[in-house]
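hey so i finally got around to running the thing on that chain from the lab meeting. sorry it took forever, my laptop kept dying and i had to restart like 3 times. anyway pasting the input first so we r on the same page abt which one it is
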Amino acid sequence: MGKISLGVNMEFIRHDDKPFEWGVQTAASLGYEYVEPMVHWGRELLSEAGYFHSVSMLDDPYRVKRACEKAGIKLSGLSGHSVLVRPDIGTDYLKQAVRFAAECGAPVVNTDEGPKAAWTTPAEDFVLMKYTLYEAAAVAEPRNILIGLEPHQQYTRHPDGLDRIHALVKSPAIGINFDTGNSYLCGHDPYVWLERVRDRLVHLHAKDISADQSSSERGKVTGTPVGCACGQGVIDWARVIEICRGCPRDIVLSVECGTVPQAAASIKHLKNLL
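ok and heres what got predicted. didnt touch it at all, straight out
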């Protein structure tokens, strides 16, 4: 039985116009044990100016490591969504994210298939994704980095689609980063789906969905960037925790919400359940 810990995705400061280091310190002050930074390729104006939390993979990975050590917090993984279905984008992006994760000390890199090109067929898309994942797994395996596939787009909106992508490349480096909110909004039972991937789970996005968002979007979208505070939406967190306790590895519930107050409410609710 795996240990369950609490972390927060750095999207919780997305509207505060603050840099990465501020977000790490804020997460630690709220009581989180882990953070999940977002990384990007190249240079991005708002991040460079200190108005956004995403970290460039052209930066020294020790920037992330030092910020976490200073705050007394650990890394659950990196948000490195890299468009698997577009090898011209996803292959080098994901490989660089894996190398960055290995240097900064993040055990998992989370990604999804990304929006498909308008002109490719599904059969072609799965060949393209196999190429990207094969190349990425070859970099991840010797570094002991895990790649977490997340339900988020057109193919992973269904459990069969997520399973099919996971099976494209036979590698111990490839697992599942389950997202409770995305799976729910796709129209599925998130608990049944979580049970289905439990033995392959390497990370979990703890995303709750408000009643209003549920009524307006469920069955119409493939996912959402962030949710509401855990405990203020439709997700049964006690049930999620019960399922995760049966995982073969330790799992971090990485809260995905959009504000600091939501992150504070989320950890209070989840700690009470743990």
